[in-house]
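Lab channel / #folding
Pinned by the channel admin:
"Please post every new chain as: sequence first, then the structure tokens as a reply. Keep commentary short and put observations after the output so the thread stays searchable."

First post following the new format, from NK:
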Amino acid sequence: MGLDIARASLHELGTLDGDSIIVGEIDDKLVNLPSYRELYHRWEKQQWSTQDLDFSIDRQDWANVAEENRPIWISGFVVFFQGEVSVVNNLIPYLAAVPTEEQRIFLTTQLVDEARHATFFDKFFREALLMEGPDIESILVKIRPLIQPGQRQILMEGLVE
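Reply from TO:
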């Protein structure tokens, strides 16, 4: 494959196609899984920030979506937004439950990533879809009614169990 994914920068990762990642990294590396420490170091090197994202083109595209079609689009987006928030809430108890410090440190990276994903959707809903509210919860309260019952059961009730 050429590029060592474990040592690659975020920019270098963006140059790879999905097949090379699946075949070259996942299939070939299943025998020699990285340690929690190695996973943490990889995470530390491959960061991105929601603050670097520009949704101005998305906002322009959204302006061209017919008003009657917007709830359909939002109902698709909200599932991902709620999913990220639900995962954040459900990972927290695991931090105290994992047996080693290295596992706890690595799991914290996953919690941060899920929080970043939730923040991504908050920014997307505010800047691209022009929704307003003082915090993430206020945006979710507005759009949760668009979540289908089965999705609600999985994302908001099932994950809690």
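NK: The CA atoms of residues 41 and 135 lie 32 Å apart.
TO: also worth noting, The chain is about 65% helix and 0% strand.
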